[in-house]
Amino acid sequence: MKLATLARVAVAIRPPKLLVHLPSMHRPISILSRQITMDAKTVASRLTSSGLLRTQGLIGGKWSDAYDGKTIEVFNPATGEVIANVPCMGHKETSDAISSAHDAFNSWSKTTAAERSKYLRRWYDLIISHKEELGQLITLEQGKPLKEAMGEVSYGASFIEFFAEEAKRVYGDIIQSTLADRRLFVLKQPVGVVGAITPWNFPLAMITRKVGPALACGCTVVIKPSELTPLTALAAAELALQAGIPLGVVNVVMGNASDIGDALLASPQVRKITFTGSTAVGKKLMAGAAGTVKKVSLELGGNAPCIVFDDADLDVAVKGALAAKFRNSGQTCVCANRIIVQEGIYEKFANAFSKAVQTLQVGHGFSDGVAQGPLINEAAVQKVESFIKDAISKGAKVVLGGKRHSLGMTFYEPTVISDVKSEMLISREEVFGPVAPLLRFKTEEEAIRIANDTTSGLAAYLFTNSIQRSWRVSEALEYGLVGINEGIISTEVAPFGGVKQSGLGREGSKYGMDEYLEFFKRIDSDDD
Ligand code: ADP
To answer: Where is the Aldehyde dehydrogenase domain (predicted)?
Structure first.
């Protein structure tokens, strides 16, 4: 079997119809942002009264400041205003968090699966009962529209629920021995302390997707959330405490990313690193884990192709491409990065797609009807600008948008650019912003070649009404996830992860459990 076929672990299919760190500090603050400040204050006071606005790290069940008292500011990306200060932790705090997790592992790993399942279920119930506050917190520190943020809470919670159930289904194996008087058993046991390093684009879900299976297997964790969005992580940890999860099982440190990372990597007590983030940092962690030979799971960047064939249903393709591209303002690793359209449908698709993009309302995440919030920070906007400048200089045309939004700050206009070529920066690297580049192709072979011409291999999308083509192309695509006539492909029940330089390992689903388990062989002899 070819790599591409082996790699295919999750394919979301909708049958063809015919067949069945620093935010922009731009000031002064506008009237709009004054209005937003009011919202932020209301949200903050609600969160404080529900005990969810935590601003300290969690070590061994105790809320803790940085030992030297240093703090970092957390900003609202929609306004640039400071929401809270959190501790700027480093090596010492991380070492203590690891020790706490190691101590807690002794007892947590010996609980029964049924007990761990109950704790996780209680955590899930609490997350769901605080869905609104958690959603507001995500909007406040990350910027995505409230509806989308609430969607993230449901999605994030689903991993805790799923793995609460999956905890009970860790089976071993009995193997036929080559000797008559021997019995061979395979036992699955938790790997130990896990270091979980997460990004800012899904402040809750990237944590639950790692911590859910880790706890279900009997591991304990030290979480390092992104410094841009630590408040959601701390709120989730507070709810873990409220759920009765024993002290030390869940620890959270944040601050100096490389100090914390180095402490996690250097410790022989940490047996596994699970990471979601940039390919550059992922490679560093993978190299650093070699020193103590840790297990590593990496969910890194993508460069998702979204292929629209002549025989696609236009409405389905437009809707799917819109969802795949503009979710979270284009700031997800599975966002369509290149929309590759066959020449027969190119003009029709470009018109219909641009019309749909034009309807996306940009604004503050707390405002009604908003589909696109701000980008996370000024650096993100500058990256988008540089990619567009490069594309235009090489012949691309702006169909829609192409500039900062009149709201200012880090708001950017939903953008469509046409006549994009493979050699442009925007085709080669993840833009991580609300820009849809359209590329044109003639034949199926050419589409596959363009799609695979990248070092990434996370998500791909294709739109066609031919079932034969959907199988043929999806098997030829070197991507871990393929959406067929579908733009939203993440779910807790299917394995999520990439091939090539998009990562190692799978998250979610029954396969996600194996990442936190060691397989031990035991031999039993009949001899007395
Ligand atoms: P992004 O571009 O999504 O911010 P990063 O890879 O920079 O991606 O960040 C993802 C996570 O990795 C964040 O929590 C960040 O603080 C953390 N991180 C960044 N550098 C390091 C490092 N050297 N060691 C450990 N963690 C790091």
So the answer is: 64-518
Angle made by CA atoms 195, 259, 513, in degrees to the nearest 5: 10
Q: In this structure, are strands 435-441 and 220-224 parallel, antiparallel, or unpaired?
A: unpaired
Q: Which residue has a Cα nearest atom 19 of ligand 1?
A: 257
Strands in 331-434 per DSSP E: 336-342, 397-400, 415-418
Q: Which of 7, 508, 30 lies closest to 274, judged by CA?
A: 508
Q: Is 429 exposed, middle or buried (0-12, 13-18, 19+ CB in 10 A)?
A: middle
For a pocket test of ligand 1, which of 200, 226, 254, 297 has the largest count of ligand atoms closer than 8 A to its C-beta? 226
Nearest atom in ligand 1 to the alpha carbon of residue 282 is 6
Active site residue 299: yes
Give start and end residues of each alpha helix (H) in 50-193.
91-108, 113-129, 131-142, 146-166
| Nearest by Cα to 55 from 280, 254, 341 | 254
Higher pLDDT, 394 or 34: 394
The residue count for the chain: 528
> Can you name the residues that pair with 446 across neighbouring β-strands?
none
pTM, entire model: 0.93
Q: What is the spatial distance between Cα 382 and Cα 379, in angstroms, rounded to a whole number?
A: 5
Atom nearest to 197 CA in ligand 1: 14
Instruction: State the average pLDDT for the chain.
Output: 92
Among residues 86, 351, 317, 285, the alpha carbon closest in space to that of 203 is found at: 86
Q: What is the pLDDT of residues 277-305, one digit of tens each?
A: 999 999 999 999 999 999 999 999 999 99
The secondary structure of 307-352 as a DSSP string is EE-TTS-HHHHHHHHHHHHHGGGG-STTSEEEEEEEHHHHHHHHHH
Residue of 230, 199, 206, 202 lying closest to 88 (CA atoms): 230
Alpha-carbon separation of residue 228 from 40, 139, 511 (angstroms): 16, 12, 30
Looking at residue 153, the DSSP 8-state letter turns out to be: H
What strands, in cross-sheet order, belong to the sheet with 220-224?
Answer: 62-64, 57-59, 250-252, 220-224, 193-197, 270-276, 295-299, 503-504
Q: Which residue has the tokens 């200060």?
A: 85
Q: Which helix (H) or strand (E) holds 221?
A: strand 220-224
Helix axes 113-129, 230-242, angle to 10 degrees: 120
Q: Supply the residue whose CA is at minimum distance from atom 15 of ligand 1.
A: 226
